[in-house]
Fold these 3 entries.
Entry 1:
Amino acid sequence: MKTYCIKTAFFAAILIGGALQAQVAIGKESVTNTSVLLEFGPGNKGIVLPAVSTAPGAADGTFILDTTTKSVRVKQNGSWTDLTALGQAADNPYINTGTTDIGDGVIIGADSTTKPGVLVLESTTKALVLPSVAAPDQIVLSPVAGTMVYDTSVSMLAVYDGHNWSYWK
């Protein structure tokens, strides 16, 4: 029951924040950086990317955990870039290929969007700040494939593909 209440409160906060086009804070009282739409509090958790085989109509900046190639990918300049080292996750048993889209999603920062997604941050002046975790490979004990954080110990983006943490500056 407690888990259900926490999940309900979390999604209610996102829905209300999205509906009001306000900045949203998760895991903290309020947004402290005025240049962000979505800000996370301290902790040893990250964002988990959607596990999908296709992402039709995806906009540049979309991150996914591709269930076909079993890799983390980002769309940039109109094409997909593989962020997982080639072949590194090819035999990854941790990628769930049975995911189901259950709704239209939430938009934060605008009344509407043309971009598909469960959570769309729509702004020309504000950004997403990832959860900050020092040394996630040591601190996040049971990461889920697709977990994405900002590693403060090396000042890099860290993404877990189900087998390994990969880092990008």
Note: The helical segments are 2-20, 136-139.
Entry 2:
Amino acid sequence: MTNISNILVHTPLWVFAVFAFLMWVGLQALSPRTLSIWRLLITPAIFITWGVESIVVRSLSSPILVVDWSATLAIGAAIAWTTSRLDNVGIDRQRGTVSFPASALPLIRNLLIFSAKYVLGVAAAMMPAWRPELALWDIAVSGASAGYFLGWLARFALAYRRASEPNLAEQVR
């Protein structure tokens, strides 16, 4: 138990804040919900920023990490592009809102990515000799998650663009 408490004590506070936010967003997704566009973009922004930050911090230490990150970014984007289904999503461009059906996917996806990053960070801190190997995996998770959310955003932007424009003639009446 002391190892777990030691790990938690040495975990930066921002990690707990990100975890709490991702749990909150994921639990909300278990029910149908309507979000403003800006709120919809928060979770992708977190994972994209986290992914980009990971490669920026480490890119100078090893060029192979840039290749690793770029390859997994492309894979993550391809997965999101091919698997994202927005058929049941209601887009109201006039109000700037998006309605989603209930889904466990955001909770599961967010917690899997967060857990992978957290476990790899803890492992690197506890086993310094393994840091180079763990860095490859950490960068791969960062690239894949950033790519996934970039792919999802591209798919969403296309759906948003295709959503019907409000009929201005009806608004005048």
Note: The longest strand covers residues 33-36.
Entry 3:
Amino acid sequence: MSGREQVRIPVAISAPHVYLTADVIEELFCDKYRLHVQSPLSQAMQFAAEESVTLIGPRGRISNVRIIGPPRSANQVEVSKSDALTLGIDAPVRESGDLAGTPGILIAGPRASARLHSGVIRPLPHVHMTPADAARFNVKDHDRVDVVSASNGRAALFQKVIVHVSPRFRLELHLNADEGSATGLRSGDYVLLSATNPGTINQDQPS
């Protein structure tokens, strides 16, 4: 990269959504149920399913929560701080897949309800990228980067954003709805990463 080059990273804002195992999908819908693709997502092999569920917490519920396919090996519910307050759940801020000690929730489908004993998180902001992107930016999987945006006249800095690298990924910054609202960012906007800006690249591993 040249000293003056700025890297634009597309933004994706996520509503609350769930990743479910095949067993839980069957429990919610019917035996041997298969999810139907509503629309493919930007990350390879992932899709927004036609099917949705209702999240039921101690204080409230959120309806029409999209299932993200295909089925997973572990159940995970991703919400924002506002969603967690609505549900009455103390959802910790975690990296995707870091589910130890997380709270559970009741999920209602058309057939029945399923009680998850863990899996509810507020996901950390993260950047997906390919190995070629990582080589170009001089980072590796699980490094941290800083990205900056300027949307509608409001500048915002996201520090120590986790990098996820895979050949299946497409370059994209993932934020939840609260983070998008706070910064004025919407899906399709861009943030900037500058490898020449001191402090932008932090090689420390996450704690």
Note: The first strand starts at residue 7 and ends at 14.
